[in-house]
Amino acid sequence: MDPRWFEAEIAFSQDNEVDYFWCKPGLDLTGHTLLLKDWEAPVMLHADRGPHDKARAVEITNLFPDMLWGGLSGVLYGKVAVSGTVGDLALVGRFVDVGAGSTKARLVQVFGSGESATWDLKIVDVQTGELLLAAHHRVCTKGVGNTLRDRLKAWSVTFGNRLLTRTVK
């Protein structure tokens, strides 16, 4: 994790649902509109990643914001609006490591391909740029029928539930 990306000194909490999570004390997202911005280009913090890993990182960078939009919209419906065009708060993210795993295993989806992805995301106030929430998380594929896409989609709902319980009054 590169703490400079979050642009603030924060003390993350750790758990199983969101590996590292922080939100501004008293943050209430109720009634706000969350603008899901395009994600930044992947930043591979592990120098040993190859071209297949980098290509997979670009691919999921383009897929994950839509998954987040779906997951967050469903969970936060009626409490926090989620938009791709307007909002007073912005969610932005980036992948910081992606392991493409086995291409052959990914194609047959037998026992998981060994793919992994690690990302940072943050919610900031559009007007002031103030950091309101930060997260850093990693998923790995293992098991029958467990794809990276499945894991990212499931985490989107998990993250929505975290927002619901921690930041919606």
Structure, described:
The chain is α/β, with parallel strands linked by helices and 169 residues long. It has three helices and seven strands; from the N terminus they run βββαββαββα. The model has no long low-confidence stretch (mean pLDDT 89).
- How many strands? 7
DSSP strand (E) fraction? 25-35%
If helices are DSSP runs of H or I spanning 4 or more residues, what is the number of helices?
3
Kindly provide the radius of gyration, computed on alpha-carbon positions and rounded to a whole number of angstroms. 16 Å
Strand order of the largest sheet: 1-2-7-6-5-3-4
Unreliable stretches covering 5 or more consecutive residues: none
**Main pleated sheet:** 7 strands, mixed
Distance N to C terminus: 30 Å
Dominant shape? globular
What class would the helix/strand composition place it in? alpha/beta
List SSEs in N-to-C order: EEEHEEHEEH
Give the oligomeric state of the chains in this entry, treating copies of one chain as homo and distinct chains as hetero: single chain
Fraction in helix: 25-40%
Mean of all residue-level pLDDT scores: 89
Provide a short characterization of the protein structure.
The chain contains three helices and seven strands. By secondary structure, the protein is of the alpha/beta class.
Kindly list the characteristics that best describe this protein.
169 residues, alpha/beta, seven-stranded mixed beta sheet, 26% strand
Q: How are the elements arranged and paired?
A:
Elements: E1 13-14, E2 20-23, E3 33-36, H1 51-76, E4 81-83, E5 89-99, H2 103-108, E6 116-125, E7 131-140, H3 148-167
Parallel strand pairs: 3-4, 3-5
Antiparallel strand pairs: 1-2, 2-7, 5-6, 6-7
Helix pairs in contact: 1-3
